[in-house]
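Sequence of GntR family transcriptional regulator (Paracoccus acridae).
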Amino acid sequence: MDVARITIAPSTAFQVHDWLRKRVQQGDLPPGMRISETEVAAAIGISRQPVREAFIRLASDGLAEVRPQRGTYISKISVAAVLSARFIREAVEADLARIVAQTRPAEMLDRMADEIALQTAADQTGNVNDFIESDDRFHRLLALAAGQEAVWADLDRLKAQMNRLRHLSMRAFDRGFIIGQHQQILDALRKGDANASETAMRTHLRQMLTEVPQMAAAQPDYFTD
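Predicted 3D structure, token representation.
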């Protein structure tokens, strides 16, 4: 396990958990990998207790498995959890799109356009992490534009497994296609077309229905039902 780049200070269980969660979602810690309390604690320079607490929290997220007498292992990606989160996101974000199409807050729509530009730049350089971070900001801005920031916070907590899949799929599939879908959503929002905005959002979030079986077939050891 590569822990040389940890720079958490002061370190707490929450900070260690957030750092580990991010690395799992980005694929730096792949499914099936064993992670060591001793190794992480030594690298950060803290006792094992906060690291143990972070591991427990990671397990409660469904991202790790604590196996008695054997250690802690990164969990496989749950297809059921991915599809459940996708279903909820579609239902919620389709409604958010309708709301924003009716109000068309110019500043927020301009910020969404800025994110599309950042996604294009990240795609050109092959920076998948930056691409996905911008993708998340694009969708968060939709919630903000609808006056529903708390809704995005709830969605963000739901999509831990989905994020793991996204980091795999964004390396395998055409990111330009996702950029095009974002542009279609934004164009419909700017026109104030609620029906087209909803349809564009649903089409975009249903893309994962195609990606899940393809990624599971390509890397079966990474996935579980």
